[in-house]
């Protein structure tokens, strides 16, 4: 059976194009993967929660959603597997954790205080964890 060439690679010595076969590309990608993503680095397990923030693009709430995502990722970097920003419309601003609604601007009235949002996320992903100054009462 003949191997099909998939990716061109330039050979400077001979001045002609050569191609990497599929098995060669596979071997190279695995060699590079260990350098780019070392195995001793801690990553959340695959079953960790996914948090999504749906925001209204027409209302220009991307920066607010991105800031909240950054705050949550910084606070829960080992507990959350993913934080997703989802464009929406109609004045929507919803925060969900694995499909469970944590905040809805229309239902809860306005935007969540970051302290309250961190507490709600913490209560679900790491209830024993202290949030330091964010554990105080929300005004």
Q: Which term fits the overall shape?
A: globular
**What kind of sheet is the major sheet?**
4 strands, mixed
Nearest-integer average pLDDT: 80
Q: β content, as a range? A: 25-35%
Class inferred from helices and paired strands: alpha+beta
Radius of gyration: 23 Å
Helix content: 25-40%
Instruction: Kindly state the number of beta strands.
Output: 6
By DSSP (H or I, 4+ residues per run), the number of helices equals: 4
Oligomer, anyone? single chain
Question: What string, H for helix and E for strand, traces the elements in order?
Answer: EEHEHEEEHH
Terminal-residue CA separation: 71 Å
> What low-confidence regions span 5 or more consecutive residues with pLDDT below 50?
none
Give the strand line-up of the largest sheet: 4-3-5-6
Q: Could you explain how this protein is built, in words?
A:
The structure is a single chain. The chain has helices at residues 22-36, 62-75, 105-108, 114-125, and strands at 5-11, 16-21, 50-56, 82-88, 93-97, 100-104. The longest helix has 15 residues, at 22-36. The termini are far apart. It has 4 helices and 6 strands; from the N terminus they run E-E-H-E-H-E-E-E-H-H. Strands 4-3-5-6 form a 4-stranded mixed β-sheet. It has 139 residues and is an alpha+beta fold. The radius of gyration is 23 Å and the shape is globular. The mean pLDDT is 80.
């Amino acid at each position: 059976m003949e191997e099909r060439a998939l990716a061109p690679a330039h050979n400077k010595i001979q001045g002609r194009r050569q191609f990497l076969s599929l098995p060669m590309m596979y071997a190279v990608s695995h060699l590079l993967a260990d350098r780019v993503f070392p195995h001793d680095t801690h990553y959340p397990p695959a079953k960790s929660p996914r948090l999504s923030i749906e925001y209204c693009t027409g209302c220009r709430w991307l920066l607010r959603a991105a800031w909240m995502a950054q705050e949550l990722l910084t606070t829960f970097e080992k507990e959350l597997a993913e934080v997703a920003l989802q464009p929406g419309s109609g004045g929507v601003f919803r925060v969900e954790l694995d499909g469970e609604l944590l905040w809805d601007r229309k239902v809860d009235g306005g935007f969540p205080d970051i302290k309250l949002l961190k507490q709600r996320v913490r209560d679900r992903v790491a209830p024993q964890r202290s949030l330091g100054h964010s554990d105080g009462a929300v005004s």
